[in-house]
Amino acid sequence: MRVLLVEDDADLADSLADGLRREGYLVEVARDGAAALVALAHTEADLLLLDRDLPALSGDAVCRILRQQGEPIRILMLTAAGTLDDRVAGLDLGADDYLPKPFAYVELLARMRALGRRTAEGGTVLEASGVRVDTVRRIAERDGVPLRLTRKEYGVLECLLTARGGWVEPGELLDDVWPDAEERNRGVVKAAVHTLRRKLGHPDPIDSAPGRGYRIGTGA
């Protein structure tokens, strides 16, 4: 995956870029919003890691310009402003996800993997067995009825739908939805799937199999 990292803190930018390159990402770094737009005009990137508080041109402005231009690049906004209102504002501007600083590196990687899967699949809506998720607005519904999901339940549902009928192992769900070390046990996955099933209703769209994990079939 090709990543453009836009961060004015030189030490943080260098540290993140080095780490991501070791993970196999192709990373280019821009120090401000104006430089980011120039870089995107000359190179193709799959994911934009965008600091919200940038000199010359803010991350908000960069995000707004890209969406007005119809640029489909996935945007993960990084910022020290982490209140609910801040997150909502960032998503309303067109960001695909929002990660408050300071963040755990493993969580950043998990968010990037999730956005990478969306890029590979294309589009913003995932749907199977009457279950529908809008990955930009982060809303879910079953047979047209909105679902009130927790963040973890939503994360599990999005992972299962992204697999397009394929099996998702509990370890994969832990990596993507529970990146924090203190929460990493398969019991939390089982509990989230249980409550998710209850909220999805009948017929149960989630299949499970020992040694394989979970899936949502692509049939009706």
* Percentage of residues in helical conformation: 40-55%
CATH architecture of the largest domain: 3-Layer(aba) Sandwich
CATH superfamily of the largest domain: Response regulator
Strand order of the largest sheet: 2-1-3-4-5
Listing every helix as H and every strand as E from the N terminus to the C terminus, the arrangement reads EHEHEHEHEHEEEEHHHEE
Number of strands: 11
What share of residues are in beta strands? 15-25%
Q: Taking all residues together, what is the mean pLDDT?
A: 85
Number of continuous helical runs:
8
As a whole number of angstroms, the C-alpha radius of gyration is 18 Å
Number of domains: 2
Describe it.
This protein has 220 residues and is an alpha/beta fold. It has 2 domains: 2-121, Response regulator (Rossmann fold, 3-Layer(aba) Sandwich), CATH 3.40.50; 125-216, Orthogonal Bundle (Arc Repressor Mutant, subunit A), CATH 1.10.10. The protein has helices at 10-22, 33-42, 59-68, 84-92, 105-121, 151-162, 170-177, 186-200, and strands at residues 2-6, 26-30, 47-51, 74-79, 97-100, 125-128, 131-134, 139-142, 145-146, 206-209, 213-216. The strands form 3 sheets. A 5-stranded parallel sheet has the order 2-1-3-4-5, sandwiched between helices. A 4-stranded antiparallel sheet has the order 6-7-8-9, covered by helices on one side. Strands 10-11 form a two-stranded antiparallel ribbon. The longest helix is centred in the middle third of the chain and has 17 residues, at 105-121. It is globular. The protein starts with a strand and ends with a strand. The mean pLDDT is 85.
